[in-house]
Specification:
Length: 182
């Protein structure tokens, strides 16, 4: 869809394309040229508006290659069909403008959201990159490099202590006689 919507209007009746209708021998199939080829949303809006109203003199209508094509009696074109088409044209043009405005607003919002997220990530990155004098390297090297009063050393000593207690308890449990056999 174009960045700026340009209204679509009926600009001509193509006499070369006019033919006999398949609906009835007294009817014709007319081709009204539009100012430009409509996009699919515009065509959907056009049909949506037409389907919302009941008009007795409607027969067949379709949009193809920049034309509104319809079956009619020639006497009904100016009195019934053109006013009917113009009402649908106005509705489709208005809805298409609204759709483009909505798309623009959503696009601006997405860009603003992306910018906000980018700023948040940059701020987070800056906080992560700040050097922390208490931070120690991770992994096995940390235990070897850590000074005796570092927080990791205390954990390591407690771990060794608990491991030794568990092994003693397990060893003592295996030495106790079973109570069921006494």
């Amino acid at each position: 869809m174009a960045a700026e919507f340009i209204d679509i209007a009926i600009v001509d009746l193509d006499l070369a394309k006019t033919t006999w209708s398949r609906v009835h021998s007294s009817m014709r199939t007319l081709y009204l040229r539009l100012s430009r080829e409509p996009e699919l949303p515009w065509i959907r809006f056009f049909h949506e508006e037409r389907e919302s109203r009941v008009v007795i003199k409607r027969h067949g209508l379709w949009i193809e290659d920049g034309y509104i094509v319809f079956d009619c009696l020639l006497a009904d074109v100016e009195t019934h069909h053109l006013p009917d088409f113009r009402q649908s044209l106005d509705y489709a043009n208005e809805k298409s403008r609204e759709l483009i405005a909505t798309h623009r607003k959503q696009s601006r919002q997405r860009k603003a959201d992306e910018l906000t997220e980018r700023e948040q990530l940059t701020t987070l990155r800056g906080r992560i990159r700040v050097s922390d004098p208490l931070r120690q390297p991770a992994g096995p090297v940390a235990a070897a490099v850590a000074p005796a009063n570092a927080p990791g050393t205390d954990f390591e000593s407690k771990r060794k202590d608990w491991r030794a207690r568990f092994r003693r308890a397990l060893k003592n449990r295996n030495k106790e006689p079973e109570r069921g056999n006494e």
